[in-house]
User: Fold these one by one.
Assistant:
Number 1:
Amino acid sequence: MDSNKIIAKKKVVTIIENTKLSDDVFSMWIEDDEIASLVKAGQFVSLFCNDPTYMLPRPISVCEVSDDKKKIRLVYKVLGKGTKEFSLLKENDTIAIMGPLGNGFILENKKTILIGGGVGIPPLLELARNLDTEILVVLGYRDNQTFLADDFKKYGKVYIATEDGSVGNKGNVIDAIKNNNITGDIIYSCGPSPMLRAVKEYGKSNNIPTQISLEERMACGVGACIGCVCKTNEVDKHSNVKNKRVCKDGPVFWAEEVSL
Ligand SMILES: Cc1cc2nc3c(=O)[nH]c(=O)nc-3n(C[C@H](O)[C@H](O)[C@H](O)COP(=O)(O)OP(=O)(O)OC[C@H]3O[C@@H](n4cnc5c(N)ncnc54)[C@H](O)[C@@H]3O)c2cc1C
Ligand code: FES
């Protein structure tokens, strides 16, 4: 996939809102008309911590762009120290940010299946907003904390899979697809590696073109450190080996391009 033009410039922006969506998932709106007007669905930003002991920025996908293209929404789960610090920020606080980064999804207006798992769900919302076609949305969660599920209902029929069976289909996203006889002409997916492996296999065995967004751990976020490579099936022209940088060449790939 083509890398998009990036604005690899660190800048400080204002937080408009930072609210809790579930026990450990937060929604942050920030004001920045440059990023908001440039970003494509599937791209991400790097957020910097104020604590100087955490030097590396944290990659977070753009979940939504406001209609006036002045604000972006980030939905993130508190996992470690960086995301904990973000969760404590309040309205009118500032945060250092770089972006938009990465390539983004290639939009095709065919009957679409969106498949998201956990913190892979947020980038699919901006994608749903930008598609002009029939959309079936399959969202996988651990339990009944089904953050963002209602937001997707504006764009298509939503099917939920939960590991504990508390909401929707008990099981994983592929179980939900099979149980509900969901079919489509293209799949877009983002989530943890085991889920993406199953989605890739499902797309391949049903002849459905599949784009997946990878969640590799990152360092620089702009293609300079080779800290985020994934294995590819073809030799990459930058490195001459079967590798691609998730931050710069991805995070979105056609499923058959990468080994999972
Ligand atoms: C392109 C991209 C987009 C992302 N978008 C989102 C998003 O929209 N919302 C969201 O909640 N998260 C997203 N993530 C994951 C997010 O970047 C990490 O959860 C975050 O960096 C963790 O930072 P931390 O300081 O809180 O945790 P750390 O202290 O750095 O790590 C805490 C734990 O999380 C694990 N971890 C850290 N980074 C990752 C990662 N990239 N993938 C899997 N496990 C990780 C570590 O192994 C460790 O166990 C994205 C990651 C990538 C690469
Ligand atoms: S994080 Fe440095 S090359 Fe991707």
Note: The CA atoms of residues 211 and 255 lie 6 Å apart.
Number 2:
Amino acid sequence: MNLKYDYVIIGSGFGGAVSALRLSEKGYKVLVIEKGKWFNATDFPKTNWNLKKWLWLPQFKFRGFFKMTFLNHVTVLSGVGVGGGSLTYANTLPIPKDDFFITGSWANLNPWQKVLKPFYKTAYKMLGATVNPKLHDSDLLIKEIAKDLKKEKDFKAAKVAVFFGEPGKTVKDPYFDGKGPDRKGCIHCGACMTGCRFNSKNTLDKNYLYLAQQLGAKILAEKEVFNVETLDKKNISKGYKISYKSSIGKKKKESVTTKGVIFSGGVMGTIPLLLKLKETSLPNLSNLVGKCIRTNNESLLSITSSKDNDKDYSKGISIGSILHTDKNSHLEPVRYAKGSSFFKMMSLPTVTGKYRILRILGVLGILITKPIYILKTFFTRKYAEKTTILLFMQTLDSTLQIKRGFFTSMKTIAEKGKKPNPFIPEAIDLGTKVGAKIKGISYSNFTDILLGTTTTAHILGGSVMGEDAKTGVVDKHCNVFGYQNMMVCDGSVISANPGVNPSLSITAISEFAMSKIPEK
Ligand SMILES: Cc1cc2nc3c(=O)[nH]c(=O)nc-3n(C[C@H](O)[C@H](O)[C@H](O)COP(=O)(O)OP(=O)(O)OC[C@H]3O[C@@H](n4cnc5c(N)ncnc54)[C@H](O)[C@@H]3O)c2cc1C
Ligand code: SF4
């Protein structure tokens, strides 16, 4: 059969980008299909008040790169566009804590820490990871907290995917012996999560995808894959037909044929697609699709200073430092750039407790007892400069299941252990400590307070590794059980809680999976 491609990759985030480059290097003909847009540096919004350029809500003609998905137990933040989550992420690339490699459904499949070590090294190199050279006010604030906790040694500048050349100066490709694009030195403006307008952030379109294109990989943007079927139902080795339609304009349906297919849509793309396909064209998929979904057990708190001083918490890269608070937990100060204050519209004072009504009464109590602080910090024109966001994460585990809803493509149900908790006591305590230093109180996402759900930028799992189809959706090399030349390479194969930001691990595991594919 004359197949158009050797591999079609669905999604261009970390897993998809690694796959595109490594398969192209091995001589395969590759097509990447991506739901979101291509972005040039100047396409990114100046602040996140430019909702049309920031948010991905194509039904309202908002064609940005940041997506929020509200599920029963969790509000998920993710990226959409050529480069996936790298367009909106905060560049931080920590190595997971030791437990990650020896827990979860993948634990017995490999001595992962040893096996993945060289691939973490490659991932670091490809993403241009380097230690943040300059701490700014919010980093110094967390350093002070570290000192108070007698944990100064556990405070470190973060390793990040940013080009720190001479600020604002354009140079020839500094990473890939001249084969990559020109880059500009970071100016520490804090806008990494609303898109780097200065060509300094090492997004995937500047490394993996750029190099893959040089080798002939084709990238089709603004197209959403909605069906994958075997070309011959009786012979799964014959190849696949991939059907897609425009994700923004007229929904004309098109298709291509391919020998192999790689699902790289991230958890929010791959899992609803696989759940649908299991009921329709790919019935051999494991019954575990959608199970073992994890967050990083995160807590996101924002604290706005009411002190009249010249501290500017918006300066620096989005995440510039990390404090390891104990064996299982760590804290990162996060910032948005000057003017990017949209999230204050989505925040409420943090009030913990089991019962919603008591939390709401608690919020009303704060509004009544602290009107001057509330008004001063809400109406300030310097919201981003005065606000530091605390991102707290833990390795402790709890899992959810994503299912197809009756009216929706996804709903969650709690699986094992406690459901993700929006009010992690250690995080709340750190929020209070930071608040005391800067004369502020903690705020949480409104869904945390009103619904008792948690907010995560690190959704993982749903297509986890196992020994066979009864214990996993994919094997230890990311091959899908029940089909041939079909893989999943993205956050959905992460089979334990890394306890840290996951992009480096997704990159390393995808590199490992690709290393097992022979040359064409
Ligand atoms: C605000 C924010 C900050 C973050 N900061 C960090 C950080 O500092 N460090 C870190 O490690 N991680 C961070 N993350 C998390 C990180 O972005 C994700 O873990 C990572 O991007 C997941 O990679 P992935 O390969 O699973 O897929 P993604 O990067 O999510 O990419 C999937 C791509 O597939 C596309 N797609 C989905 N379905 C389809 C379909 N059917 N057809 C075509 N295309 C499709 C999507 O549009 C998307 O572009 C952050 C996330 C957010 C939202
Ligand atoms: S701090 Fe500013 S210049 Fe530096 S990477 Fe982030 S957005 Fe780009």
Note: The mean pLDDT is 95.
